[in-house]
């Protein structure tokens, strides 16, 4: 059981529930991960940056699918209309002019082949399992739990504000154009997290549902943390790259 495993045992007011959700992010969001700290300090090699971008693409590409699964669960047309904006943001008008395409631009800007990235054949097994677990979670758990798991977006502007300036300052091969994915994300993440938080505040109306919402956010933080754990293990100093995964060119 996590440190938040019985946070709602006695029931929480909306303000208290929101406080606990923010505490989850403060304790468990992946801007605390050593791999992220290495990135922002300028300590990663270009090969490590490539591995991060390639593996993160597998996560980015599944986002519209998990959002479609969430929409499928809702009988409320207003909810569906609002949540559909997330799919539009990532897929764009034709599938390749939204956030996924901008992430692909980031990956190719780092020197990766677009078809290799899109195939996802070279991602780490742990990345594949983590991303699959997230999709399964949003498909099979309650709508409240699926929505609450998206609340990591509350903290997305924080990590972007740390990551982007550091990447531009500390890696001479990274340009603002390569990082175009991040231009719109803080505003979109704030819009989406405001809606999701309001939904959770309204529907987590007893201790059991409040705890489910808290646990869902913990789970999503674990997914993101596990992905960085896998990168650190595979591409760290000991070089534990599993068979079939991306191998950076020698520096």
Automatic annotation (TrEMBL):
One of its GO terms (biological process) is pyrroloquinoline quinone biosynthetic process. It catalyses: 6-(2-amino-2-carboxyethyl)-7,8-dioxo-1,2,3,4,7,8-hexahydroquinoline-2,4-dicarboxylate + 3 O2 = pyrroloquinoline quinone + 2 H2O2 + 2 H2O + H(+). Its EC number is 1.3.3.11. The keyword Oxidoreductase applies. Residues 27-229 form the Thiaminase-2/PQQC domain. Pathway: Cofactor biosynthesis; pyrroloquinoline quinone biosynthesis. It is an enzyme of class 1 (oxidoreductase). It comes from the Bacteria. Keywords: Oxidoreductase, PQQ biosynthesis. GO terms for molecular function: pyrroloquinoline-quinone synthase activity. Pfam families: TENA_THI-4 (PF03070). Belongs to the PqqC family. PANTHER family: 4-AMINOBENZOATE SYNTHASE (PTHR40279:SF3), PQQC-LIKE PROTEIN (PTHR40279). NCBIfam families: PQQ_syn_pqqC. Ring cyclization and eight-electron oxidation of 3a-(2-amino-2-carboxyethyl)-4,5-dioxo-4,5,6,7,8,9-hexahydroquinoline-7,9-dicarboxylic-acid to PQQ. This is Pyrroloquinoline-quinone synthase.
């Amino acid at each position: 059981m996590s440190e938040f495993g019985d946070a709602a045992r006695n029931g929480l007011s909306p303000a208290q529930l929101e406080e606990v959700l923010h505490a989850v992010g403060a304790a468990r969001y992946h801007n605390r991960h050593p791999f992220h700290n290495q990135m922002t300090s300028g300590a990663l090699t270009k090969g490590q940056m490539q591995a991060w971008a390639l593996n993160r693409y597998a996560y980015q590409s599944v986002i519209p699918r998990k959002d479609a699964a969430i929409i499928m669960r809702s009988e409320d047309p207003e909810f569906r209309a609002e949540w559909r904006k997330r799919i539009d943001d990532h897929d764009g008008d034709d599938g390749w002019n939204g956030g996924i395409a901008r992430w692909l631009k980031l990956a190719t800007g780092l020197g990766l082949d677009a078809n290799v990235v899109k195939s996802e054949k070279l991602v780490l097994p742990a990345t594949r399992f983590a991303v699959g677990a997230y999709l399964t979670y949003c498909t099979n758990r309650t709508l409240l739990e699926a929505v609450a798991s998206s609340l990591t977006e509350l903290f997305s502007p924080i990590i972007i504000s740390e990551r982007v300036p550091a990447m531009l300052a500390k890696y001479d091969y990274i340009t603002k154009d390569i990082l175009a994915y991040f231009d719109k994300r803080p505003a979109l993440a704030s819009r989406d997290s405001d809606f999701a938080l309001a939904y959770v505040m309204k529907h987590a109306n007893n201790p059991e549902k409040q705890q489910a919402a808290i646990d869902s956010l913990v789970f999503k933080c674990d997914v993101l943390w596990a992905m960085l754990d896998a990168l650190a293990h595979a591409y760290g100093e000991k070089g534990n790259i599993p068979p079939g995964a991306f191998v950076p060119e020698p520096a």
